[in-house]
Amino acid sequence: MRIIRNTQGAITNAEQLTVDDVVLESVVCPACRAKTFANWPWGWDSHSGWKCSASEGGSPKEKKASFKRRFSHLFRKK
Fold it and tell me: Model pTM greater than 0.85?
């Protein structure tokens, strides 16, 4: 899949890409599209747990887990 960027240079189609495509890149949140991460994945846990309107779950912990499951292909495996 080819990378698509907005006029500010942020990747807008992360959900269709791989971790190698997005790591340390400017990326628009693949869930809510309201937040732009300056360097993916830095800040994802705070955003997905508290601010992301598209994160599912009742608590911040549940929201973060749901986000990470949904977009697991965008995170490095440990």
Answer: yes
